[in-house]
Amino acid sequence: MLWELFVLFFKVGCMAFGGGYAVMSLIQREVDHKGWMGAERFQEIGSLAGMAPGSIATNSATLIGYQQAGMPGALIATTGIILPSMLLVVLLAAFFVKLQHSLGVRSAFYGLRPIVTALIVYAAIHFGFGGRAEAGGLLGWQTLGMLLICAGCLLAIVKYKWHPFAVILISAAAGIVIF
Amino acid sequence: MKLVLQPSGTSRLRLIPQIFAVFCKIGPSTFGGGYAMIATIEKEIVDRKGWMDKSEMGDMISVAGSAPGGVAVNAAAFIGYRLGGVIGALAAVTGITLPTLVVVLLLSLTYALFKDNPKVEAALKGVHAAVVALILVAAWKMARSSLFDVATYTLAAAALAILLFTNLHSIWLILGGPAIGAAVVAIRRLKRPDVRTEPGTQELDSSAMMPEYYI
Question: Which pLDDT belongs to residue B207?
Fold first, then answer.
């Protein structure tokens, strides 16, 4: 199990261009595929991961590792997801800082960034609505409540520049009122 | 330059616990991440400790932002390596990760204790909605720094359609995007030598140029 956790999150770590959000749907897909958890449990884990400081993907890895294999699992999964980027950054820091500005690298990122944008949008949709269609509640009160809170949060962050943690706390209170 | 596995000399070795301590301190403040977090790191490393100068920070931000993974961890790896070799990188990454790991585990254990309480369950549903909003904000910021011409808009729309309506693994998109990007730039260069690969600076304020990889 520990090896399986390490390999899974090492692979995820290799693909985490654009940071944590872009790989959330990939993690969701993989844990579902392995039969470790369904959409609802994953949404719980993602919500807890989003409440803590640090990258949401790394925090999710910690929690999934913990669920599957206790404390060693948490440590192994976290190491797995961090290791690829750490290795790459150390190599870049040692040899290739100038490579960043070469045309080849710039044009690769020119094509990669739109993909990352799509991945993050998809993560929001998948994380927000995954499992709702099967549960038969795509248009129910639950979904409406979620959309309401989500819209309020967007307004608070974009227009009023609230700190994300304040937004999360108020949403928790709103959740108690609505659900 | 060569890869430095071990810090040379006792002064660099003595730096290791300090590196660990500084990043341990930065770790919890990575909430809200992105640009705010880079500012915290800069204040601590450049202003307070004097370990690096501003131009090195610029290198650091461009490497940390383009490698896979969260910007905070990448920044820690870069700075740790420059200061204390591979051991320094390990110390910095462990330092920045450990506090958040403890926080998220404590949160999850607390939640597990009260999860049968319907109010706690409802609160977490509220948090879920907030996290969806945070992801959308990240997507919007990423879009602002990546979508600026027909090719990039088309690529993003096509990738989203593929994700929504097919079962293709996202690794193919991550490999395909750069290939298409390189091809588009190569074709355009046949006509015009100065091809833009980033949004023009006049369209964006400086903070938007730093893609919000992290939040």
Answer: 39
Mean pLDDT, chain B, whole residue set: 83
- Assigned token pair, B143: 């879009």
Q: How many CB pairs below 8 A link A and B?
A: 358
Q: Are the C-beta atoms of residues B144 and A73 closer than 8 Å to each other?
A: no
Residue A151's nearest CA partner among B58, B31, B126, B108 is: B126
Is B128 within 8 Å of A124 (Cβ atoms)? no
Closest CA to A123 of A17, A6, A4, A14: A17
B136 and A150 within 8 Å at the Cβ level: the answer is: yes
- The pair of three-digit structure tokens given for residue A74, joined into one six-digit string: 């948490």
The structural domains of chain B, with segments of one domain joined by +, span 9-113, 117-209
Q: Of A86, A84, A65, A82, nearest to A74 (Cα)?
A: A65
Mean pLDDT of all residues in A33-47:
92
Residue-level pLDDT at A97: 65
How do the domains of chain A map onto residue ranges? 2-107
CB spacing of B93 vs A145 below 8 angstroms: no
Question: A164: which 2 tokens?
Answer: 């994300």
Q: How far is A4 from chain B (nearest CA, A)?
A: 19
Q: How far is B208 from chain A (nearest CA, A)?
A: 13
Rounded to 5 degrees, what angle do the CA atoms B113, B114, B119 make? 170
ipTM score here?
0.89
Burial class (CB in 10 A: 0-12, 13-18, 19+), A141: exposed
pLDDT in tens, B111-127: 999 988 999 989 999 99
DSSP 8-class letter at B147: -
pLDDT tens digits along A155-174: 998 888 888 888 999 999 99
